[in-house]
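Deviation from plan, reported transparently: manganese (II) ion complex.
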Amino acid sequence: MKKPIIGILGTVLKHKSGDNEIPANYVNSAYCKAVEKNGGIPFIIPYFENKEDVLGLIDNCNGLLFPGGEDVDTHLYGEEPHVSVGSMNRKLDEFWIYIEKAAEQRKLPILGICRGMQLINVSRGGSLYQDLSQLNPNHLLHGQRQERSYLIHKIKIDNESLLCKILGTDEIQTNTLHHQCVKETGNELKITAYSIDEIPEAMESNDERIVLVQWHPEELTETEPRMNKLFKDLIKKSSK
Ligand SMILES: [Mn+2]
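Because the crystal trials were delayed, the predicted structure below was used instead.
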């Protein structure tokens, strides 16, 4: 059987080369590795200006992975930026939102991770807490200082959810690298997991086409091997 092509949306960063800063389209290797390890072909989709042209790439993808990255521009959910907001890139957000709408039309399966979860929630009309302290001033540690493969906090998963079915458990330890979270949920999305300090940690679409997680499973494929199942689920759905 032909392996499905999983489009991974690229971010833009500046990397240092001598005295210069050079803009680069990139994704962390961990995303590509996790897709490859679980039976898919990773395909990096760069940011470019003429967003209609991305459809030529999307039409060659069987599924999409929306990875982590910068904060979503607050104006996209109708708020002025709080002092706690990190760096934002509205053009990149709009490019990703355009791809989310194209995926909707094509019914492409999606796995969204961290920023990917937040961006898709906003794309579907939802909003974010610009900082976790706005939801819970006594929240736990969600911005870990340990290596990314380190498990920090547990989450409780809704028994009825697809996520519970995928992972085969209603409780699991995760890493955590976020300072924002979902406020109002977007169209056809529901929250499927919380940390014990009531921070939303996962969502999915009612039709089970979209699975969104706030943690970084791509960094846990060795530490918590059950995380591979998230990629296997995407790749299985992308094989149909
Ligand atoms: Mn967390």
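The chain has one domain: 5-12+22-238. We consider this an acceptable substitute for the interim report.
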